[in-house]
Amino acid sequence: QQQVKQSPQSLIVQKGGISIINCAYENTAFDYFPWYQQFPGKGPALLIAIRPDVSEKKEGRFTISFNKSAKQFSLHIMDSQPGDSATYFCAARASGSARQLTFGSGTQLTVLP
Amino acid sequence: GAGVSQTPSNKVTEKGKYVELRCDPISGHTALYWYRQSLGQGPEFLIYFQGTGAADDSGLPNDRFFAVRPEGSVSTLKIQRTERGDSAVYLCASSPGTGSEAFFGQGTRLTVV
Q1: Which of A72, A102, B60, B72 fits as disulfide partner to B52, beta carbons 3.0 to 4.6 Å?
Q2: Nearest chain A residue to B55, by CA
Q3: Does A44 touch chain B (CB under 8 A)?
Q4: Inter-chain contact A89–B31, Cβ cutoff 8 Å?
Q5: Tens-of-pLDDT digits for all 113 residues of chain B?
Q6: A·B CB contacts under 8 A
């Protein structure tokens, strides 16, 4: 059962444009929603994260929007740059004893120069 | 160390052989996780250690997979009787404690031929 659904699978954006990646979850016990960035041959690196008590979090060019009632959250990359070209994963983690992350299937972002 | 270190970075083995994958977490991190990432997919949870004990091994696919962390630092993921379907990147992550940010290593790419 895929608990975190991510779309699109791939995304091509012009330099300076806005990249938007969406995720939806099913498990209402999730209380932590991070986004990871992964370059080829590297492990995932935390980009930004949000908890469900806020609807938006912004760090530099990266913004997470969170809709608790719809069980959806999204990553917005403003002024996208070629260096942002990577694979992005949303993830979720539940409170309590289950501390592992459940990842989406990933979005391969290409920012054209 | 400065980050999570995984060795080897690449491992090619024949079907049916036994392999060991090593993870050196960030010094002082008590929580350690193993994930498996198949091509084009997000990481999937395998096992979680808090200190020396496996707090959650619900993600291990079958009894061919086993992991240890005898002194609460270095961990070894062991795979017996490898199958071609075991081919993937095996990622290790550590965090200062449960609920904290997880830092990933660059992974071990396992290829079973």
Answers
A1: B72
A2: A97
A3: yes
A4: no
A5: 589 999 999 999 999 999 999 999 999 999 999 999 999 899 999 999 998 988 899 999 999 999 999 999 999 999 999 999 999 999 999 998 877 789 999 999 999 99
A6: 56
